[in-house]
Amino acid sequence: MLEIIKYPRLILRTKVKKVKNILNAEVQKFIGELIKTMVAADGLGLAANQVDKNLRMLAINHKDGPKVFINPVIYWKSWKKNEAEEGCLSFPGVYGLVWRSKKIRLFYRDGQNRLRHLAADELLARVLQHETDHLNGVLFIDKATKYTRGENQVKDWQNQATNENI
Ligand code: CO
Fold first, then answer.
1. Could you confirm whether 131 is annotated as catalytic?
2. Ligand 1 midpoint to CA 82 (Å)
3. Were both Cys, which of 72, 113, 121, 125 would link to 22 (CB 3.0–4.6 Å)?
């Protein structure tokens, strides 16, 4: 099992790099580890930089089973949005309300290096937006309009990060 990186570690603020050789044995091994770690943590999704890996890859706990999305590009988002509560494995105990597009369309590569297209809505669209944000170093606390749980925890982490920089 891989260690899940908690905020405010810097890798969570890093825009991670495209995966070049998906069929490479190490990359294949990592795909399996990322999925296993997400399932064991009971997460809806997990981005590679949340396990300290600088790769554009994320796993989703899809209703048909866990699924990996490599080099995902969301090229369309619906104008219509809805607000719902989100949490994140890198922010234990923290939940907040976030507005997301209701529908998205994306291209990505699967674990066999095949180019895929997906139109997603509802919860899957939300989770994919949350996880692709991670790959750009964007976190749900940047977008939360209101915390529903754990706001003080976020403030403590932010103070801690500021003190370390001084
Ligand atoms: Co997250």
1. yes
2. 18
3. 113
Which CATH number goes with the domain that contains 80?
Answer: 3.90.45.10
Residue 152 lies in a domain: yes
Q: Is the pTM of this model over 0.85?
A: yes
pLDDT digits (tens, 9 = 90+) for 46-77: 999 999 999 999 999 988 999 999 999 999 99
Q: What is the SS3 string spanning the chain? A: CCCCCCCCCHHHHCCCCCCCCCCCHHHHHHHHHHHHHHHHCCCCEEEHHHHCCCCCEEEEEECCEEEEEEEEEEEEECCCEEEEEECCCCCCCCEEEEEEECEEEEEEECCCCCEEEEEEEHHHHHHHHHHHHHHCCCCHHHHCCEEEECHHHHHHHHHHHHHHHC
